[in-house]
What does this fold into?
Amino acid sequence: MGRLQKALLFHPLLIFLFLLSLSAIAQTSNHTSDQAPDAQATAVGTASAETSPTLAQLRVMIDRGQAAEALKHLDALAAQQPIPAGVNKLRGLAFYSLNEFTEADSAFASALKDDPHDLEAEQLRGLTLFRLGRSADAIPLLEAASQWTPHTKVDPSYVLALCYLDTRQYDKARGALAAQYGFAPESAPAYLLAARFLFRREYLPIAQQYAEKALEIDPQLPLAHELLGEIALAGEHLDVAVAEFEKEQSRNPLEGGIYDRLGDAYTREGDYTKALQSLERALLLEPTSTGPYILIGKVYLRQQDPASAVMYLERAEKMDPNNYMTHSLLGQAYRGLGRAQDASRETQISEKIQAAGELKLEPVH
It folds into this structure.
Protein backbone atom coordinates (compact mmCIF):
# COMPACT_ATOMS: atom_id res chain seq x y z
CA MET A 1 0.00 0.00 0.00
CA GLY A 2 1.47 3.45 -1.03
CA ARG A 3 2.04 6.35 1.27
CA LEU A 4 -0.86 8.38 -0.15
CA GLN A 5 -3.28 5.47 0.26
CA LYS A 6 -2.17 4.96 3.83
CA ALA A 7 -2.55 8.67 4.56
CA LEU A 8 -6.06 8.71 3.13
CA LEU A 9 -7.05 5.76 5.24
CA PHE A 10 -5.99 7.39 8.45
CA HIS A 11 -6.60 11.15 7.89
CA PRO A 12 -10.27 12.23 7.33
CA LEU A 13 -9.24 15.81 6.48
CA LEU A 14 -7.09 14.60 3.62
CA ILE A 15 -9.96 12.46 2.37
CA PHE A 16 -12.25 15.48 2.30
CA LEU A 17 -9.71 17.64 0.42
CA PHE A 18 -9.05 14.85 -2.12
CA LEU A 19 -12.77 14.43 -2.91
CA LEU A 20 -13.21 18.21 -3.16
CA SER A 21 -10.45 18.42 -5.77
CA LEU A 22 -12.06 15.63 -7.83
CA SER A 23 -15.41 17.49 -7.78
CA ALA A 24 -13.77 20.69 -9.00
CA ILE A 25 -12.09 18.85 -11.89
CA ALA A 26 -15.40 17.25 -12.89
CA GLN A 27 -17.27 20.58 -12.85
CA THR A 28 -14.59 22.25 -14.99
CA SER A 29 -14.82 19.41 -17.49
CA ASN A 30 -18.64 19.60 -17.66
CA HIS A 31 -18.60 23.38 -18.11
CA THR A 32 -16.19 23.08 -21.02
CA SER A 33 -18.26 20.38 -22.70
CA ASP A 34 -21.49 22.38 -22.19
CA GLN A 35 -20.01 25.45 -23.85
CA ALA A 36 -18.76 23.61 -26.92
CA PRO A 37 -22.18 22.83 -28.49
CA ASP A 38 -23.35 26.40 -27.82
CA ALA A 39 -20.31 27.79 -29.57
CA GLN A 40 -20.85 25.43 -32.49
CA ALA A 41 -24.53 26.39 -32.72
CA THR A 42 -23.62 30.08 -32.71
CA ALA A 43 -21.14 29.51 -35.49
CA VAL A 44 -23.68 27.56 -37.56
CA GLY A 45 -26.37 30.20 -36.97
CA THR A 46 -23.99 32.96 -38.05
CA ALA A 47 -23.08 31.06 -41.17
CA SER A 48 -26.77 30.44 -41.98
CA ALA A 49 -27.69 34.07 -41.46
CA GLU A 50 -24.94 35.10 -43.88
CA THR A 51 -26.16 32.67 -46.58
CA SER A 52 -28.69 34.18 -49.03
CA PRO A 53 -31.71 32.02 -49.94
CA THR A 54 -31.68 30.35 -53.33
CA LEU A 55 -34.27 31.30 -55.96
CA ALA A 56 -36.07 28.01 -55.25
CA GLN A 57 -36.23 28.88 -51.55
CA LEU A 58 -37.48 32.38 -52.35
CA ARG A 59 -40.26 30.92 -54.49
CA VAL A 60 -41.30 28.71 -51.58
CA MET A 61 -41.37 31.79 -49.35
CA ILE A 62 -43.69 33.57 -51.81
CA ASP A 63 -45.97 30.53 -52.02
CA ARG A 64 -46.15 30.43 -48.21
CA GLY A 65 -47.28 34.05 -47.92
CA GLN A 66 -43.86 35.57 -47.19
CA ALA A 67 -43.72 37.64 -50.37
CA ALA A 68 -42.63 40.86 -48.64
CA GLU A 69 -39.66 39.14 -47.01
CA ALA A 70 -38.73 37.36 -50.24
CA LEU A 71 -38.91 40.68 -52.10
CA LYS A 72 -36.17 42.14 -49.91
CA HIS A 73 -33.77 39.41 -51.05
CA LEU A 74 -34.95 39.68 -54.65
CA ASP A 75 -34.44 43.45 -54.70
CA ALA A 76 -30.87 42.91 -53.54
CA LEU A 77 -30.32 40.40 -56.35
CA ALA A 78 -31.94 42.77 -58.86
CA ALA A 79 -29.33 45.41 -57.94
CA GLN A 80 -26.58 43.14 -59.30
CA GLN A 81 -25.29 43.51 -62.83
CA PRO A 82 -26.16 41.47 -64.69
CA ILE A 83 -29.37 40.53 -62.90
CA PRO A 84 -29.38 36.76 -62.23
CA ALA A 85 -31.72 34.75 -64.45
CA GLY A 86 -35.15 34.19 -62.90
CA VAL A 87 -35.01 37.12 -60.48
CA ASN A 88 -37.34 39.40 -62.44
CA LYS A 89 -39.99 36.70 -62.73
CA LEU A 90 -39.90 36.01 -59.00
CA ARG A 91 -40.10 39.74 -58.27
CA GLY A 92 -43.20 39.87 -60.44
CA LEU A 93 -44.68 36.91 -58.61
CA ALA A 94 -43.95 38.54 -55.24
CA PHE A 95 -45.54 41.84 -56.32
CA TYR A 96 -48.56 39.96 -57.68
CA SER A 97 -48.98 38.13 -54.35
CA LEU A 98 -48.99 41.53 -52.64
CA ASN A 99 -51.64 42.86 -55.09
CA GLU A 100 -49.14 45.39 -56.41
CA PHE A 101 -50.09 44.78 -60.03
CA THR A 102 -48.37 47.74 -61.70
CA GLU A 103 -45.01 46.71 -60.22
CA ALA A 104 -45.75 43.08 -61.06
CA ASP A 105 -46.39 43.98 -64.71
CA SER A 106 -43.08 45.83 -64.95
CA ALA A 107 -41.19 42.89 -63.44
CA PHE A 108 -42.86 40.32 -65.72
CA ALA A 109 -42.12 42.53 -68.74
CA SER A 110 -38.44 42.51 -67.74
CA ALA A 111 -38.58 38.74 -67.26
CA LEU A 112 -39.88 38.32 -70.82
CA LYS A 113 -37.05 40.50 -72.12
CA ASP A 114 -34.65 38.17 -70.33
CA ASP A 115 -36.35 35.09 -71.80
CA PRO A 116 -39.03 35.68 -74.48
CA HIS A 117 -39.90 31.96 -74.39
CA ASP A 118 -40.74 31.85 -70.66
CA LEU A 119 -44.29 30.44 -70.83
CA GLU A 120 -44.99 31.02 -67.14
CA ALA A 121 -43.88 34.66 -67.23
CA GLU A 122 -46.10 35.16 -70.29
CA GLN A 123 -49.12 33.71 -68.47
CA LEU A 124 -48.42 35.70 -65.33
CA ARG A 125 -48.08 38.97 -67.20
CA GLY A 126 -51.33 38.26 -69.07
CA LEU A 127 -53.09 37.57 -65.75
CA THR A 128 -51.59 40.73 -64.25
CA LEU A 129 -52.80 42.86 -67.15
CA PHE A 130 -56.26 41.34 -66.74
CA ARG A 131 -56.24 42.27 -63.06
CA LEU A 132 -55.24 45.81 -64.08
CA GLY A 133 -58.32 46.00 -66.30
CA ARG A 134 -56.23 45.86 -69.49
CA SER A 135 -57.94 42.85 -71.06
CA ALA A 136 -57.12 43.84 -74.64
CA ASP A 137 -53.40 43.94 -73.79
CA ALA A 138 -53.63 40.63 -71.95
CA ILE A 139 -55.19 38.71 -74.86
CA PRO A 140 -52.05 38.28 -77.07
CA LEU A 141 -50.03 37.00 -74.11
CA LEU A 142 -52.70 34.54 -73.01
CA GLU A 143 -53.31 33.36 -76.55
CA ALA A 144 -49.60 32.57 -76.89
CA ALA A 145 -49.41 30.84 -73.52
CA SER A 146 -52.64 28.88 -73.24
CA GLN A 147 -51.00 25.62 -72.10
CA TRP A 148 -50.64 24.63 -68.47
CA THR A 149 -47.19 24.74 -66.84
CA PRO A 150 -46.09 23.00 -63.61
CA HIS A 151 -46.67 26.31 -61.80
CA THR A 152 -50.01 27.27 -63.41
CA LYS A 153 -52.53 28.21 -60.73
CA VAL A 154 -55.31 29.76 -62.86
CA ASP A 155 -56.46 28.13 -66.09
CA PRO A 156 -55.22 30.47 -68.85
CA SER A 157 -58.18 29.50 -71.05
CA TYR A 158 -60.57 30.75 -68.35
CA VAL A 159 -58.80 34.11 -68.01
CA LEU A 160 -58.57 34.40 -71.79
CA ALA A 161 -62.34 33.80 -72.03
CA LEU A 162 -62.97 36.60 -69.51
CA CYS A 163 -60.75 38.92 -71.53
CA TYR A 164 -62.73 38.08 -74.67
CA LEU A 165 -65.96 38.84 -72.80
CA ASP A 166 -64.57 42.17 -71.63
CA THR A 167 -63.73 43.08 -75.22
CA ARG A 168 -67.09 41.80 -76.55
CA GLN A 169 -65.51 38.98 -78.56
CA TYR A 170 -68.24 36.52 -77.64
CA ASP A 171 -67.52 33.75 -80.16
CA LYS A 172 -63.86 33.68 -79.14
CA ALA A 173 -64.95 33.56 -75.49
CA ARG A 174 -67.10 30.54 -76.30
CA GLY A 175 -64.11 28.87 -77.94
CA ALA A 176 -61.86 29.52 -74.95
CA LEU A 177 -64.43 28.21 -72.48
CA ALA A 178 -65.04 25.15 -74.66
CA ALA A 179 -61.29 24.47 -74.65
CA GLN A 180 -61.24 24.65 -70.85
CA TYR A 181 -63.91 21.95 -70.59
CA GLY A 182 -62.93 19.92 -73.63
CA PHE A 183 -66.11 20.75 -75.59
CA ALA A 184 -66.30 21.22 -79.34
CA PRO A 185 -66.62 25.02 -79.93
CA GLU A 186 -69.81 24.65 -81.97
CA SER A 187 -71.47 22.12 -79.64
CA ALA A 188 -74.60 22.67 -77.57
CA PRO A 189 -72.68 22.46 -74.25
CA ALA A 190 -70.21 25.10 -75.48
CA TYR A 191 -73.04 27.52 -76.29
CA LEU A 192 -74.78 26.88 -72.98
CA LEU A 193 -71.54 27.29 -71.03
CA ALA A 194 -70.84 30.60 -72.74
CA ALA A 195 -74.44 31.67 -72.06
CA ARG A 196 -73.91 31.03 -68.33
CA PHE A 197 -70.84 33.27 -68.25
CA LEU A 198 -72.59 35.95 -70.27
CA PHE A 199 -75.51 35.84 -67.85
CA ARG A 200 -73.14 36.31 -64.90
CA ARG A 201 -71.73 39.37 -66.63
CA GLU A 202 -75.32 40.59 -67.15
CA TYR A 203 -75.02 40.47 -70.94
CA LEU A 204 -78.62 39.29 -71.08
CA PRO A 205 -79.49 39.54 -74.80
CA ILE A 206 -76.41 37.66 -76.01
CA ALA A 207 -76.77 35.14 -73.14
CA GLN A 208 -80.33 34.44 -74.25
CA GLN A 209 -79.20 34.09 -77.86
CA TYR A 210 -76.53 31.54 -76.94
CA ALA A 211 -78.88 29.53 -74.69
CA GLU A 212 -81.47 29.36 -77.45
CA LYS A 213 -78.75 28.26 -79.89
CA ALA A 214 -77.79 25.48 -77.47
CA LEU A 215 -81.39 24.23 -77.44
CA GLU A 216 -81.57 24.49 -81.22
CA ILE A 217 -78.58 22.14 -81.48
CA ASP A 218 -79.81 19.81 -78.71
CA PRO A 219 -83.48 20.27 -77.67
CA GLN A 220 -83.01 17.88 -74.71
CA LEU A 221 -79.96 19.60 -73.27
CA PRO A 222 -80.26 19.68 -69.45
CA LEU A 223 -80.41 23.05 -67.67
CA ALA A 224 -80.84 25.10 -70.87
CA HIS A 225 -84.46 26.00 -70.04
CA GLU A 226 -83.41 26.78 -66.47
CA LEU A 227 -80.89 29.33 -67.73
CA LEU A 228 -83.47 30.86 -70.06
CA GLY A 229 -85.77 31.11 -67.05
CA GLU A 230 -83.05 32.87 -65.03
CA ILE A 231 -82.48 35.32 -67.88
CA ALA A 232 -86.23 36.04 -68.09
CA LEU A 233 -86.43 36.42 -64.30
CA ALA A 234 -83.55 38.91 -64.34
CA GLY A 235 -85.49 40.94 -66.88
CA GLU A 236 -88.70 40.69 -64.80
CA HIS A 237 -90.45 38.71 -67.56
CA LEU A 238 -92.17 36.56 -64.97
CA ASP A 239 -94.55 34.65 -67.21
CA VAL A 240 -91.68 33.64 -69.51
CA ALA A 241 -89.54 32.67 -66.51
CA VAL A 242 -92.25 30.42 -65.07
CA ALA A 243 -92.80 28.76 -68.46
CA GLU A 244 -89.07 28.05 -68.88
CA PHE A 245 -88.67 26.71 -65.33
CA GLU A 246 -91.69 24.43 -65.82
CA LYS A 247 -90.14 23.07 -69.03
CA GLU A 248 -86.93 22.31 -67.13
CA GLN A 249 -88.94 20.71 -64.31
CA SER A 250 -90.60 18.32 -66.77
CA ARG A 251 -87.18 17.28 -68.13
CA ASN A 252 -85.34 17.19 -64.80
CA PRO A 253 -87.98 16.56 -62.08
CA LEU A 254 -85.52 15.74 -59.28
CA GLU A 255 -83.37 18.85 -59.60
CA GLY A 256 -84.03 20.83 -56.40
CA GLY A 257 -82.76 24.09 -57.84
CA ILE A 258 -85.59 24.17 -60.38
CA TYR A 259 -88.21 24.21 -57.61
CA ASP A 260 -86.26 26.95 -55.83
CA ARG A 261 -86.29 29.11 -58.97
CA LEU A 262 -89.96 28.37 -59.60
CA GLY A 263 -90.72 29.38 -56.03
CA ASP A 264 -88.88 32.67 -56.56
CA ALA A 265 -90.81 33.36 -59.79
CA TYR A 266 -94.17 32.53 -58.19
CA THR A 267 -93.30 34.78 -55.23
CA ARG A 268 -92.60 37.71 -57.53
CA GLU A 269 -95.88 37.03 -59.34
CA GLY A 270 -97.69 37.09 -56.01
CA ASP A 271 -98.85 33.48 -56.25
CA TYR A 272 -97.79 32.57 -52.71
CA THR A 273 -99.57 29.20 -52.60
CA LYS A 274 -97.64 27.88 -55.60
CA ALA A 275 -94.50 29.52 -54.28
CA LEU A 276 -94.67 27.70 -50.94
CA GLN A 277 -95.52 24.43 -52.66
CA SER A 278 -92.46 24.67 -54.93
CA LEU A 279 -90.14 25.81 -52.14
CA GLU A 280 -91.18 22.97 -49.84
CA ARG A 281 -90.33 20.55 -52.67
CA ALA A 282 -86.98 22.26 -53.02
CA LEU A 283 -86.33 21.74 -49.31
CA LEU A 284 -87.02 18.02 -49.56
CA LEU A 285 -84.59 17.65 -52.48
CA GLU A 286 -81.94 20.09 -51.20
CA PRO A 287 -82.16 20.07 -47.37
CA THR A 288 -78.72 21.68 -46.94
CA SER A 289 -79.45 24.66 -49.19
CA THR A 290 -80.35 27.93 -47.48
CA GLY A 291 -82.10 29.40 -50.55
CA PRO A 292 -85.51 27.77 -50.03
CA TYR A 293 -85.54 28.65 -46.30
CA ILE A 294 -84.83 32.30 -47.10
CA LEU A 295 -87.46 32.45 -49.84
CA ILE A 296 -90.08 30.80 -47.63
CA GLY A 297 -89.32 33.38 -44.95
CA LYS A 298 -89.81 36.10 -47.55
CA VAL A 299 -93.17 34.62 -48.60
CA TYR A 300 -94.44 34.52 -45.02
CA LEU A 301 -93.34 38.12 -44.49
CA ARG A 302 -95.38 39.15 -47.53
CA GLN A 303 -98.32 37.23 -46.08
CA GLN A 304 -97.94 39.21 -42.82
CA ASP A 305 -96.96 36.07 -40.89
CA PRO A 306 -93.68 37.02 -39.14
CA ALA A 307 -93.89 34.14 -36.65
CA SER A 308 -93.69 31.53 -39.44
CA ALA A 309 -91.04 33.59 -41.22
CA VAL A 310 -88.81 33.60 -38.14
CA MET A 311 -88.90 29.80 -37.92
CA TYR A 312 -87.45 29.37 -41.42
CA LEU A 313 -85.12 32.36 -41.31
CA GLU A 314 -83.54 31.32 -38.01
CA ARG A 315 -82.86 27.92 -39.54
CA ALA A 316 -81.20 29.59 -42.54
CA GLU A 317 -79.14 31.79 -40.20
CA LYS A 318 -77.80 28.75 -38.34
CA MET A 319 -76.86 27.09 -41.65
CA ASP A 320 -75.13 30.22 -42.99
CA PRO A 321 -74.61 33.04 -40.49
CA ASN A 322 -72.80 35.20 -43.06
CA ASN A 323 -75.74 35.78 -45.42
CA TYR A 324 -76.72 39.43 -45.15
CA MET A 325 -80.16 38.82 -46.71
CA THR A 326 -81.07 36.33 -43.98
CA HIS A 327 -80.24 38.87 -41.26
CA SER A 328 -82.10 41.63 -43.09
CA LEU A 329 -85.27 39.55 -43.36
CA LEU A 330 -84.90 38.38 -39.76
CA GLY A 331 -84.79 42.04 -38.73
CA GLN A 332 -88.08 42.62 -40.53
CA ALA A 333 -89.64 39.52 -38.97
CA TYR A 334 -88.57 40.45 -35.42
CA ARG A 335 -89.88 43.95 -35.96
CA GLY A 336 -93.23 42.49 -36.98
CA LEU A 337 -93.28 40.52 -33.71
CA GLY A 338 -92.48 43.62 -31.66
CA ARG A 339 -88.97 42.43 -30.81
CA ALA A 340 -87.30 45.79 -31.43
CA GLN A 341 -83.94 44.94 -29.86
CA ASP A 342 -83.57 41.73 -31.88
CA ALA A 343 -84.66 43.57 -35.02
CA SER A 344 -82.03 46.27 -34.50
CA ARG A 345 -79.32 43.67 -33.90
CA GLU A 346 -80.12 41.73 -37.08
CA THR A 347 -80.26 44.90 -39.18
CA GLN A 348 -76.84 45.95 -37.89
CA ILE A 349 -75.39 42.50 -38.62
CA SER A 350 -76.81 42.63 -42.15
CA GLU A 351 -75.28 46.05 -42.80
CA LYS A 352 -71.92 44.95 -41.37
CA ILE A 353 -71.78 41.86 -43.60
CA GLN A 354 -72.69 43.93 -46.66
CA ALA A 355 -70.01 46.52 -45.87
CA ALA A 356 -67.36 43.82 -45.36
CA GLY A 357 -68.30 42.22 -48.66
CA GLU A 358 -67.95 45.51 -50.50
CA LEU A 359 -64.49 46.08 -49.00
CA LYS A 360 -63.31 42.69 -50.27
CA LEU A 361 -64.25 43.45 -53.88
CA GLU A 362 -61.22 43.80 -56.17
CA PRO A 363 -60.82 47.27 -57.67
CA VAL A 364 -60.53 45.57 -61.06
CA HIS A 365 -62.26 42.34 -61.97
About this structure: The CA atoms of residues 54 and 98 lie 21 Å apart.
